[in-house]
Amino acid sequence: MIISIASGKGGTGKTTVAVNLALSLGNQVQYLDCDVEEPNGHIFIKPEFQKSVTVGTPIPEVNKSKCTYCGKCGEICQYNAIVVIKNNVLVFPELCHSCAGCWLVCPENAISPIDRELGIIEQGKNGGVEFIHGKLRIGEAMSPPLIRKVKSEIDSNKTVIIDAPPGTSCPVIESVKKSDFVLLVTEPTPFGLNDLKLAVEMIRTLKLPFGLVINRSDIGNDDVRLYCKEEKIDILLEIKNDRKIAEAYSRGTSMVEIYPEYRTKFQELYHEIERRAGA
Q: Are 266 and 238 in contact (CB under 8 A)?
């Protein structure tokens, strides 16, 4: 089963929930940190890394001795990553989505793909948790291709926990799609509610089953709960605001290490997700 942990905004406790869920399940767990711009799950899982692979994505390279400057490559590119101007072809690698359209449509076979580095994927293990994360190259804007590479390592024989990026943009969609269940994490504040609504709209558009965890549940107000009642969204777990948990987080220590009783709560959460997902 694939469970994605997502949130409409950063700072809600998404990684906290993902980490503690993974650690509570023991063996045969795969943790994929798809928040490739700022991965931090490794701080808490503490894997021993065994493998590191550089990941690239294909972009066009133009052989100008063959090019007739017909402009067909520029016409097919929806992202303006390749442009023909008079007797010159300009390539903008940062805009390229690696769709392959330009070199497939070129009548002179003047365009061929070359690899552009996106970042790295690191794999490791701690106990029964297999850990995989991507780290996007500094200055790189295209995270979905790297997220796809991370997800290509999914082991269908294991329980897969995906720590998605915050927000509701393309990287989040790439992370959560094809999940069996999405666990949204929010906090009971006006900002939390605003971004939760966006996340719910996204998940419903993708037609994925989902539920909610409210972190720091005793701060703010009841607007999130009222919204969930109106929208028939099930709250599967509430985690109270606790200074001890926050201090442990700042040291890279998981919640289940300082409060073993939470291990049972996360195991019960998993079984509820399992029931709802029909796994």
A: no
Start-to-end Cα distance in the chain? 7
pLDDT digits (tens, 9 = 90+) for 7-44: 998 889 999 999 999 999 978 999 999 999 999 999 99
Predicted model pTM: 0.90
Q: Please report the domains of the chain, with CATH numbers, ordered by start residue.
A: 2-55+118-277 (3.40.50.300), 64-109 (3.30.70.20)
